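Re: the multi-chain job from yesterday

Posting the exact lines I submitted so nobody has to dig through the queue logs.
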Amino acid sequence: MALFEIFDPKAPARPIGIDLGTTNSLVAHVTHERPAVIADCDREVLVPSVVAYLPGGEVVVGRRAARLASEYPRDTIVSVKRFMGRGASDPETRRLGPYQFVDAAEGAANTVRFKVQGDRVVTPVEVSAEILRVLKQQAEDELRHVGGAVITVPAYFDDAQRQATRDAARLAGLEVLRLINEPTAAALAYGLEKKQNGTFAVYDLGGGTFDVTVLVLDDGVFQVRSTGGDSALGGDDMDRAIAHELLAALGFDASRQTPQLVRLVLDEARQAKHTLTTQPSVEAEVPGQQRVAVTRARFEELIRPLLERTGVACRRALKDAGLRPEELDGVILVGGSTRVPAVREYVAKLFHREPLGDIDPDQVVALGAAVQADLLAGDGRSDEVLLLDVIPLSLGIEVGGGVVDKVLPRNSTIPCSAKATYTTQEDRQTGFEVHVVQGEREMVADNRSLARFTLKGIPPMPAGMARLEVTFQVDADGLLGVNAKELTTGIEQTVSVTPSYGLDDASVERMLLDALDHGEDDLGRRRLAENRVDARRILRATRKALAQDADLLEAGEREPVVQACAALDQAAAGDDASAVHSRIEALDEVTRAFAGRRMNRAIARAIEGRRVDAVEKSVDHAKGIEAAHATQGPLPSVGGVS
Amino acid sequence: MTVNPFATLGLAPSFDLDLAAAEKTHRELSRTLHPDRFVAAGASERRAALTKAVEVNEAWRVVRDPIRRAEALLELAGATTEDEGGRRPDTDPEFLMEMLEQREALAEAKQAKDLARVRALAGAIETRSRSVEGTLAVRFARGEAATLVGTLSELRFYRRFLDEVSAIEDDLVA
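And the result, structure tokens for all chains:
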């Protein structure tokens, strides 16, 4: 299995960027300082995100799977991304589709599960892992040795959906460098291409998700101001709108809709949508049925409500960013669904300008992901570019009466953390129920429930006396951790928010081991190799710091650091993974105070530098925008409609 | 709030401040402190940078939002925004009565699926919200922080009203 090849010592590990899309997925990498997509052996770049489970246990992914969809409609999972991180009873499972779902078993995790060939049950995480395995293989064929991966997710994905994506990558044996938001990735690809500063909106309408992001580009920093969207809105819904029309015209009510028929009609609807991009009308033909004419005018009428929903999200994102449409410097189109002429017209009207679309909207996200992977894996270029992303949805705690107390508001820049303090409602209450929710609504019931846990063992006190401090932490991947502590007693509990929808660590570990031939052995070797890489990296950084900021060392501080470095050097030359690990920790311990002082110096410099060249920079910034406008001329309209 | 968010961003505490400049400082500090800058560093340095990055992001989160900014100013001025039980002091009953009426009008518009009416109600509240922000700017500058607790809770009512409008918009357009 592929994990074995990771340790091929001859080839250098190359980072990759993956766009795990609803309809298609792509993999890209950076070569000669430019991002490029990686094609498969048939020179195809897009891998349809389709997985077919065939009789006899064979699993087929991509174009071949897509062709099998009509023959095996129940066993061929299309648009699996729409099910990621969702519960078994989610409305998404009840939309028009050919699948058979398994009800959540008593006591088991509440996850969508598909029933496929031979009574096999698969989760969306497992289906997505199949797609990622194929992409990884495709990259390995080109690069020989694949390192870490940056995987994109819709900006509006909630915590459960992000965790599910991360689980799928782990299951596919990929090391995840970072999850980044799709619109931010697209902006990265655009910003680097155009080298211009300014404020931009990214309108990303994919197969199954819609995102809008407003961000500021400033000398290599991509700072997201606001984001919004709908993680269940996209091209699939356009297909369904046409499909419902066709089914009605052909006289099929729900009782006569077989999985085969539904699959055929959905496929035909998608074809019709593509044709209507260039033609004023189309004759849709479901095999074995009479033809049905669909005009572009009727299609546009059908998708109007979908566009209105994107409009609400866009206006809100602008408001959150504190901007009027005229204040933007440009609007970037991303996602295959933005090829539909009505979508382009709608966006142009909404933002009072022609949108930009000169990078292929299907590829731009993967290209941006490759750039970020290169930045995170390499050591040189990371000084030039930085993504500052935000949390898409507010995070809060349930308080009395089923009301949400928002602790971290949406559009907070990550990484971030926030504390809130609560008290007991009843006398002698010895436990706190902590209920973590995500969303914008006032009432808990209208938001997404992320986790519940109880802080127990608090000594009985009168109501209002206990002090429960809840801390939220969101890391640079946008993943949440929650800590609760009773301040008068110091009783504490920490949870990483995964269990309600994702896979727990143990089950991922088990699945990985099942997939390995020499499970334990390989994991041991892998751990040693990783620890050695860490050791070398840390030694290099520590020696650099000692040279740079020697004046910040207090008397007697240098010697222990030098000794700890030497000890780590020695351990890294040996075969004992745990010795390497413990000496890394020892070095960490003796450099802690020094690191803090270095950070304070860096901050002082950043603030000082800002005062000195503030005027100069703002002039440059203005020039950058003017220059961009001058060179742009009339905005290019986009060809290449499929 | 343990750290003065204004100081973190190199600003003098004030309600009426140059947000564009504050955002720029936040960006420059992030350029220095973001975890991505420390992928090759040792654990102690990464942790120190992360702590500072989180602090800088919190400062920006507080400063960019009028309500959180005002709360921070009140706290710096030693005025409390909450009583011992974590409750906020009472608001002017007349104002409360009027907000109640506004919420009822909103609920009626929602019932009637009258999006235009919902948006009109929201527009009026947005105007009032901006005007209260103007008042806060003037009175904070005059050093009247201690008397502004009630004015601030008005702003909170407007915020909740507008959040409710967003929720209704989502329901009506879906």
